[in-house]
Amino acid sequence: MGLFDIIEEIIDDDLLFILKYGLIISNFITIFILLYFKSKKQQIEKDENTSVLLVTAHPDDEAMFFLPTITYLNDNNYQIHLICLSNGNANKIGKIRESELEKCCNYLKIKKLTIINDEHLQDSMNATWPIEKIQNVVQNYIEENNIKGIITFDQHGVSGHLNHIACYKAISTMKRSEELKVFVLETTNILRKYSSILDFFVSSILNDNLMVNLNIFKAWRSMQIHHSQFVWYRKLFVVFSRYAYINTLIKI
To answer: Which domain holds residue 171?
Structure first.
């Protein structure tokens, strides 16, 4: 006779139900906590006061895609620099989007922001950005600010946006010292992309460089600051996308 058979003889059905499913839930919570603390290990080796440069394509990229990474960097006392390679002027509201990005950086404690407004680096779904121009911008910034690490998009750009992919092409092919560490944000398949926090379990198994944000209000507020872009489908993105809660980085 099993344990639950013995218990069933001496307690009523309601209590048995609570015991059974309470045990299942408690095990689930325990596994989640263990995996979470596993994710809190030091993913990026650093010296004291290490400066890390985040390279994005548009205002709101930092909030939509990189929030867990930014949260991790802040929690571990990195100095975060952000270069946004355009001011998002596709709809002729570049100045508005610049202001929104500045406010979001203040909220996310990114104290060093550079917004590039160059005629060759304009927000567009169809434009191919010149790689050498991006490299010049980034290399000059690295030299002037003693940057030790760079984070940007991978070759798929999360959403397949050409501007995102240009960030990867430029950073991955530019000349750099051996001391400079470069990480790219992993693009996942569409099922994982929209599995929200549930992708935590898959990510924790497949990638050691795991960053987690468990604060949905922070994710929502970060995107809300980009008011001009916070349309209904981006609201759904915040709720259902893994990128509001989970980032996995790949070292290149």
So the answer is: 47-251
**Closest listed residue to residue 151, CA positions, set 40, 73, 205:** 73
- CA–CA separation, 57 and 109 (whole Å): 19
pTM of the model: 0.83
67 and 143 housed in the same domain? yes
Provide long-range contacts, Cβ within 8 A and 24+ apart, for 95-99. Answer: 96/228, 97/58, 97/59, 97/60, 97/226, 97/228, 97/229, 98/59
Residues 103 and 13 in one domain: no
| Cα separation, 129 vs 168, whole angstroms | 11
State the total domains in the chain.
2
DSSP 195-224: SGGGHHHHHHHH-S-EEE---HHHHHHHHH
pLDDT digits (tens, 9 = 90+) for 122-147: 999 998 999 999 999 999 999 999 99
8 Å CB contact between 149 and 182 = yes
What pLDDT score does 42 carry? 45
Amino acid residing at 31: I
| Statement to judge: residues 142 and 100 lie in one domain | yes
Q: Are residues 17 and 83 in the same domain?
A: no
Q: Is the pLDDT of residue 169 over 80?
A: yes
Quick one: how far is CA 188 from the chain centroid?
A: 12
